[in-house]
Amino acid sequence: SNDQCIDQANGQCISIGNGLTKDPNDNTCKCDVGYGYDSINMKCEICQSGEGVSPYTGECMQCESYECIDWFTGQCKDQPSDQTKDENKKCVCKEKQGYDSKTHECKECATGEGINPSTQLCEKCPKGQCIDRSSGKCTQIIENQSKDENGLCTCNEGLGYNERTNKCEVCGYRLGIISETNLCGHCRTGEGINKNKICGQCPDKEG
Questions:
Q1: Which is it for the CA torsion 197, 181, 173, 164, positive or negative?
Q2: How far is the C-alpha of 142 from the C-alpha of 140, rounded, in Å?
């Protein structure tokens, strides 16, 4: 019947409900994402932090050391080479990459898009947020900061970003603003600090 599914553990028909859904392909019981099947109590339970769902039994389990928890399905899977694990053993894209919302592959986000920290998807950051230049993630705009035309966090003119304090500050002695990172730092060889405090080539004398 429509409201029963096949228990993968013992092959019996059981009623749908309590987070149990039916796999349309083979009518087996499956749990919603992030839930594992508890065959003793015959119900779906939320997997504990750091646990994934076994692709074979549908139960919550500790994934193997070479596996991570798929961000979208909650299942244990071999860790792809372009991904790493977060503190909860979930698969996440490597540095400055987010998931493509359609293919779920890791990619460099398009210009103007940041990584949503809660979904890991590349998307336009919401109002009041800008793209952190070092992590690529959407983050709250702080005091004396705005976003540039590409959505990147940019301190107001004359100020550089201090990663340690998470503040926009006047750069210290002999430090200029590195335009790519917006951080205070030593200018590259051959560059000086211009009147806006940004590192760059000193202008040639106008003829």
A1: positive
A2: 6
Single-letter amino acid code for the residue at 26: D
List, for residues 8-44, the tens digit of each pLDDT value: 778 999 888 777 888 889 988 888 877 898 878 878 8
Predicted TM-score of the model (pTM):
0.77
How confident is the model at residue 104, as a pLDDT?
Answer: 93
User: Which helix (H) or strand (E) covers residue 46, if one does?
Assistant: strand 43-46
Tally DSSP H helices, then E strands, for the chain: 0, 26
For the cut 70, the answer to whether the pLDDT of residue 105 exceeds it is yes
Q: Which two tokens stand for residue 61?
A: 């389990």
Confirm if 125 and 151 have CB atoms less than 8 A apart. Answer: yes
Residue 58 or 39, more confident: 58
Instruction: Give 113 or 19, the one with higher predicted confidence.
Output: 113
**Cα dihedral sign for 38, 40, 43, 45?**
negative
**How far, in Å, CA of 194 to CA of 65, rounded?**
51
DSSP result, 137-195: BEEE--TTEEE-TTSBEEEPTT-EEETTTTEEE---TT-EE-TTT-BEEPPPTT-EE-T
Task: Tell me how far CA of residue 169 lies from CA of 9, 166, 181, 199, in angstroms.
Answer: 60, 9, 14, 16
Tell the burial category of 188 from Cβ atoms under 10 Å away from its Cβ (0-12, 13-18, 19+): exposed
Do residues 114 and 129 lie in contact, with contact meaning Cβ atoms separated by under 8 Å? Answer: yes
Answer yes or no: are the C-beta atoms of 19 and 29 closer than 8 Å: no
